[in-house]
Specification:
mainly alpha
Length: 258
Amino acid sequence: MTGAYLFLSVFILGLIIGSFLNVCIYRMPRGLSIVRPSSSCPSCKTPVRIYDNIPVISYILLRGRCRGCSSAIPIRYPLVELLNAVLYVSVIWRFGIGWYAPAYFAFCSAMVVITFVDLEFQIIPDAITLSGIPIGLVAGSLILIDPFVRASMLGFKNSFIGFISGGGLFYLIAVLSRGGMGGGDIKMMTMTGAFLGWKAVLLTTFSASLIGSIVGIILIVFKGKGRKTKIPFGPFLAIGALITLFFGQEIFRFYLMR
């Protein structure tokens, strides 16, 4: 398969999976099944027809409105589909094609769901993190591409240390901050450590803290938010984890050269 067709195929796959992620984002925090019933309009409950459920294209053709009741469809739907597709293509661009790619696809999709659910509901679904932890440990036990060293063996030892350090570090933060860190964040970083190893835990934590601090300052200065305003940390951790996945090697090399 030539490069162009490969990237196009992966992009389309990302769009399709992204459409399913929208189902997860809407239903998981509401305690609904992600399997049944089929998708329907939240306003009029009319089932979404197959030709109205084509990722991104249907949103454009419907002009962002339900065919049945003309209620506005949140822009989140095409954004999630596009974001997931771009992340899938980025995995192939960064690491190449291989049997390990599905593991990184799953990790990226998990970060997308966590981000949008936490932004709206201030929770991180256990269905994502608790299922992701064993998947990360299994994947990390096999030959994968470590984001810090190309074509290396992440190995069970590194994966398990990441699993322990991710959960342990954030549990310690939660204790010291007296509830300032939620259980969802602890489980999320446990999953991240299992997938990417202990180095990723450190870089993800640093990146998330830096980005979170910048966003917090902006909200205080321009939006009038107070210092005690609660801001979900999951999205920042997700961004930090993705930065680590795609650019961790370069960041560590730059730091060590200084």
